[in-house]
Design a protein that fits this description.
Strand order of the largest sheet: 4-1-5-12-6
Order of helices and strands: EHEEEHEHEEEHEEHEEHHEHEEHE
Low-confidence stretches: none
Number of strands: 16
Helix content: 25-40%
Radius of gyration: 24 Å
Shape: globular
C-alpha cells in the first residue's frame, strides 16, 4: 500500500505561503492548519509533511520522505545525494534567484575574502561558507548564527547572509563583498523512490504542473477579432516568435486570433492592436503553460 502513496515534503517557514499558492495554481489544493505540520491535499495518493527547508534534503536522502521542495543552497549545505527533478523559479519575494553573500559593515576596510583571514564569520550556511574560504586558502572561524545575522556584522568580522533584493542589508548599513552561492528552489527525490514506477510518474506529474504554473505567472492569453484585410498588419504587431491560432467566424470577412504573450508587453500591444483595426480584444490570466 505504501508504494501507492507519495510522501512529499513541502517547506515550512518563509517559502510556505508561496509554495501553497503555487500548488493551488498547479491544480493541487493544500489545506493547511496552523497547528499541524501534516496538511491535507486533494489527492489521495499524496501524503504531505511540512519541514524546514534547511533539513528537507537530509530527510529525502534518508528516505524518510520520497520527495521534497527545498533550496539548492541547503542541498549543498547538507551535501545531500538526491535526484534533482527540476528547478522551480519562485521564492518568497521575487522570481529571481536568492544569493548567499559575504557582507561587512559599510565602514569596514575589507574589500575581498582574503582580507578576512583570521577573522570570525557568522552564518547559518556553515559548510558552504567553510568550503568557500577553503577554496581561497583563507583561514577563518565560522560561527553558526541562529538568526538576526545582520546585527552580528558589527560584533564579528563579517557575515554570510541570504538576500533576494539586498534591502535588509542596505537597511543595516552593510555592503556585499562577494556572492558565496546562488540558489533557486528545487524539487528533489530520494534515489530509491525515483526507481519506483508509481512514485516516479507521480513526481514527474507534479513537476510538469508546478513548472507550468510558474511559466504562466508572467504570461496572459490574448483574443481578438480582425478583418481578413488587416491580418498582415496585426501579425506585424504581435511578437515575431509567437504564431497565433486563427479561426474562422460566422462573418466571412473576419477571423478570430488567439495567442499567449508576456504580460509586461500587454499594455503596449493592446492599444497598438486596437489602432490597427482589432476588435473584441480580450486578455485573461493563465493557470498553466505547458510547452
Amino acid at each position: 500500500m505504501s508504494d501507492q502513496i507519495l510522501k512529499l515534503g513541502i517547506p515550512a517557514g518563509s517559502l510556505q505561503k508561496a509554495t501553497i499558492e503555487l500548488f493551488g495554481k498547479a491544480g493541487l489544493h493544500i489545506l493547511e492548519s496552523r497547528r499541524s505540520y501534516l496538511p491535507s491535499i486533494d489527492d489521495d495518493q499524496i501524503r504531505l509533511t511540512m519541514l524546514r527547508a534547511q533539513e528537507m534534503s537530509r530527510y529525502v536522502e534518508d528516505g524518510v520522505i520520497d520527495a521534497g521542495i527545498t533550496g539548492y543552497d541547503w542541498i549543498k549545505e547538507n551535501d545531500s545525494d538526491v535526484v534533482e527533478i527540476c528547478e522551480l523559479a519562485y521564492s518568497k519575494a521575487t522570481s529571481k534567484p536568492a544569493r548567499w553573500v559575504l557582507a561587512v559593515p559599510n565602514e569596514s576596510k575589507v574589500s575581498n575574502a582574503e582580507d578576512l583571514a583570521g577573522g570570525i564569520i557568522a552564518t547559518e550556511l556553515v559548510n558552504v561558507t567553510a568550503r568557500y574560504f577553503a577554496d581561497r586558502n583563507t583561514k577563518v572561524k565560522i560561527e553558526f548564527s541562529w538568526g538576526a545575522t545582520e546585527v552580528k556584522a558589527r560584533l564579528v568580522d563579517g557575515i554570510v547572509e541570504l538576500t533576494e533584493t539586498g534591502t535588509s542589508l542596505a537597511a543595516n548599513n552593510l555592503r556585499i563583498v562577494d556572492t558565496i552561492i546562488t540558489s533557486t528552489t528545487r524539487f528533489i527525490a530520494n534515489k530509491q523512490a525515483w526507481k519506483n514506477d508509481f512514485k516516479r510518474e507521480k513526481m514527474e506529474n507534479i513537476s510538469i504542473l508546478l513548472t507550468a504554473a510558474i511559466e504562466a505567472r508572467s504570461k496572459v492569453g490574448l483574443k481578438l477579432n480582425v478583418r481578413k484585410d488587416d491580418v498582415e498588419s496585426i501579425l506585424k504587431i504581435l511578437p515575431s516568435e509567437k504564431s497565433p491560432t486563427v479561426s474562422s467566424l460566422a462573418d466571412p470577412d473576419f477571423v478570430a486570433m488567439e495567442v499567449i504573450i508576456e504580460d509586461k508587453i500587454e499594455r503596449t500591444i493592446v492599444p497598438a492592436l486596437k489602432r490597427a483595426g482589432a476588435s473584441g480584444v480580450i486578455t485573461y490570466p493563465l493557470n498553466k503553460v505547458i510547452h
